[in-house]
Amino acid sequence: MTTPSRWRALTQHHLFWPVAVLVLLLLVNVPFTPDFFSVRMSGGHLYGSLVSIVLFGSPLILVAVGMTLVIATGGIDLSVGAVVAITGALACSYISHQADQNALSGVLLAMGLGLLAAVVCGLWNGFLVARMGIQPIIATLIIMVAGRGVAQLISGGQIITVNSDPYKLIGGGYWLTLPFSIFVVAVVVAVTVALTRRTALGLLVESVGGNAEASRLVGIRSRRIKIMVYVFCALCAGVAGLMISSNTSAADGNNAGLWIELDAILAVVIGGTSLLGGRFSVGGTVVGALVIQTLTTTIYTIGVPTQTNLVFKAAVVIVVCLLQSPKFRTRLFGARLGRKGSATPAVAPADTAPAADAAPKMEVS
Fold it and tell me: Are 298 and 285 in contact (CB under 8 A)?
């Protein structure tokens, strides 16, 4: 294979452009923060900008991984932000009422209650979409709106603060010199990849996303698949809610996970998963989430005014999505190649001329 052919094959890989943009965003930070890529050890813990990006991007990665499977079935889940708020509020509310907030049994029970609430939200979304036939954007909009109110009711409209070392470990603690949340994300991503790429589950999800009715007719229980992915997405959002509230040792029912659903959808799209359903890429989603988090870090590093950071963020996302579009790349680079080769007249090969002349002509009156 020649070098141009290898380069063409490399650029056509679905992860090439997201990874290229991620590397570019990381390099943009160097002039503003010369030690951006340095990682140092302090107190037995690793610190640095790269570690911080993965640490603060962990909740988004979790939510985006769950969103990937939902989108792969042709759906969407707008309720993950509210599920994040509900899970964090419920866990922190339970811990705050304990006589000993450092008791491991109480912390585990609080986490279990929060995750159980997340599963209930996922079952509700899956029931409305799969059983009742409601459009996913409408079905999940219910909890997106009402869930914030539920979180406020749980927290009493106040920010609940806790002082629990075991609970702090989930989102703000360290283990083996690295943030503990990185290990949680690694386990979730590894299990997801193993289940969807080493078993038939991934193929079933893709078939339901391609054509749910045809999948049902050939014996695939598409309704159960849909309910399952919505439960999994809500469970991922619940773990992210525990991380966010643990990292701040507080639960804010109004602001926790606010707009994380939009970042998760962007991460999935940047990773190469089609919003129409069908084929998906968990690895691409992880890269897309890192792109979103790195972009957020870059915005603050280069000093973009806070009132324009969302516009800057949207512009970068648009560029990434355009670069991923084969049609856009063909028009952009094809037009350039056409202008370069316009000086050489196109000559039809001699051996194809007789075949063209021999072809019958069709006239339409």
Answer: no
Alpha-carbon dihedral sign for residues 128, 282, 151, 119:
positive
- State residue 350's pLDDT score: 45
pLDDT digit string, tens, across residues 224-251: 999 999 999 999 999 999 999 999 999 9
Structure tokens belonging to residue 260: 């994380």
| 3-class DSSP assignment, residue 218 | coil
Whether the CB-CB separation of 289 and 60 falls below 8 Å is answered with yes
- Does the pLDDT value for residue 86 go beyond 80? yes
* Under 8 Å between Cβ of 25 and 298: yes
Strands 160-161 and 174-175: unpaired
**The three-state (H, E, C) secondary structure of 307-326, written as one string:** CCHHHHHHHHHHHHHHHHCH
Residue 267 CA to residue 288 CA, distance in Å, equals 4
For residue 168, give Cα distances in angstroms to 65, 250, 258: 23, 10, 21
CB-CB contact of 168 with 246 (8 Å): yes
Backbone angles phi, psi at 85, to 5 degrees: -65, -45
Instruction: Return the beta strands (E) in the chain as ranges.
Output: 39-42, 45-48, 160-161, 174-175, 178-179, 250-251
Q: Please calculate the CA angle 137-142-143 and round it to the nearest 5 degrees.
A: 105
User: In this predicted model, what pLDDT tens digit does every residue of 291-300 receive, in sequence order?
Assistant: 999 988 888 8
Encode pLDDT of 185-204 as tens digits: 999 999 999 999 899 898 89
Tokens of 165: 């070392």
Per the structure block, which two tokens stand in for 137? 């954007």
Pairing of strands 178-179, 174-175: antiparallel
Give, to the nearest 10 degrees, the angle between helix 165-172 and helix 222-248: 110
